[in-house]
Amino acid sequence: MNLFSSSPGDKPSRQAKAVVTGAGSGIGRSFALELARRGGAVVCADIDLEAAQETVTLIEELGGKGFALTCDVGKAAQVKNLSVKAQSLLGEPVTLVINNAGVGMGGKFEELSLKDWQWCMNVNLWGVIHGCHYFVPGFKQQGYGAIINVGSAASYTAAPEMSAYNVTKAGVMALSETLSAELRKDNIRVNVLCPTLVPTNIIKNGRLPGRYSGMADHALMNYAMTTSEAVAKLTLNRLDKGLLYTTPQVDAKLFWLMKRASPSLYARFLGFSYRFVN
Fold it and tell me: Where along the chain do its domains lie?
């Protein structure tokens, strides 16, 4: 059953007027390019303006239209400015926002400083909150819109030595679920992406103890069971179907099922397993 009324938002990934944060690389870049292939125009926002411009160049090579803007999503004023400039650049109201910008954070709980927590929270959680805060009112006014929040399987797997990262991604999951229920009556779709390993620069640009960073980056680049391009396509297709969750890999689905089937047993399993790797 189609829970959305017929409107220009029925296929939100098609001919979208989109804003993608963290569009300078990885999943963000793949989202931007896939939207261009689907006839959309994309504002590519990134803290690294040069990287965002590289994405725009790739969009233009596809015959699409893109615009590069610098934005630190952890700063509310910059995201507010992004929402204003995006509409001006696109020449039309924004119809899709993809809150993708994120950073990696790892280490034992006692190793993390409060500054580490604040840095991770500002980008991974507040960045998503800011994106929703400044774009949802416009969607409600025009009567349709769509949001993709890039979370992680970490939002529910709760792996040891990833406390700050896990907390931020769990917040993204909760926010997405809440907005999906709250905004459904306004013809605004929400999808939350929860992958495991995807080859991106999140480890290189993140903060992990030296004993883990090389190993984690190697695993990300060599043992991921998908690509950022495949993840972007799948997520946009699921958004078009009005589906809330995207768990693109088999392991992400397996962890999801294990956690839902027996949360207590899953927690005991994690603790038992951690003893052998710590």
Answer: 17-277
